[in-house]
Design a protein that fits this description.
single chain, 95 residues, mainly alpha, Rossmann fold, elongated
């Protein structure tokens, strides 16, 4: 949740490949992904500290990603879809 909260605030993130959302974040260009070692983490943070343009671009990409994929409305739509599919499968199974 911390990565989503940071991105919602327009901040770039640095995270490990073990984090659940890393493929989406990497694909959106919303942050830097490291292997999880301390040196890689420090280097990624240093890259962001030195490049204000990159921070801004990644922050905007993160905010856009959160708005498009993780807003309350989007998540509610996804949940409705799951329930509709479950109910459709249950209804068909009873016939």
């Amino acid at each position: 949740m911390a990565a989503l909260e940071a991105m919602a605030c327009g901040l770039p993130v640095v995270l490990s490949k073990g984090v659940y959302l890393y493929p989406e974040i990497e694909q959106a260009g919303a942050g830097l992904v490291v292997d999880g070692d301390p040196v890689g983490l420090a280097e990624a943070i240093e890259v962001l500290l030195r490049d204000a343009t990159l921070r801004t671009r990644m922050g905007e990409a993160g905010r856009r990603l959160v708005r498009e994929r993780f807003s309350a409305e989007h998540v509610a739509d996804q949940m409705r879809s799951v329930y509709r599919n479950i109910l459709a499968g249950t209804t068909q199974a009873r016939r």
